[in-house]
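debug: dumping io for the single-chain case to check the tokenizer round-trip. Nothing else runs in this session.
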Amino acid sequence: MTMTQQTGIRRELEAAPFGAAGASLRQAVNWRTIKWKRVNSNVCRLQRRIVQAQQQDKKRKVRALQFILTRSYSARCLAVRRVVENPGRRTPGVDGQKLDTPEKKAQTVEKLNAEDYKAQPLKRVYIAKKNGKGRRPLGIPTMDDRARQALYLLAFSERTVSGRCDSAMLYSALSLELSAMDFRGRHSKLFR
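debug: decoded output
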């Protein structure tokens, strides 16, 4: 089979209209009915498996588990929840959108599954420096970009490395991990 040939199933899926045969068996996301205890346990279980694979120095297993985690429904829901519960939720990005309704939150969970992701430009705001002399630029990503960052942070953060599964560590590690993401839509340093 050459590189350009595809399996019959894949060809059918690509040829079918959106939502037709081959569509996901998962029901549409209803933000109000998500079982958060189960979501947290699913993500923590995958993170523990990543830590075990890291400790055993199984790099391919680590990459495979990170791939699974970043595409799992539970991780996507948890990433959107982290963005929505953050105090910065009231600050929209360059697109002006806020995740203030359950429908928008559910729509964002579904968008995180898309493979053709391209990051939006950052909203540039100037804030006062600590010393009070002058101002410095601050880039504010859109809500979708923040959710995508939080999703990858679940798989690549220090809490995964340490094996801990507490929610308090996420945003303390966020500032360290965001530097690894290339804001042009590529996650260059994350997938090496």
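debug: round-trip ok. Residues 22 and 89 are 35 Å apart (CA to CA).
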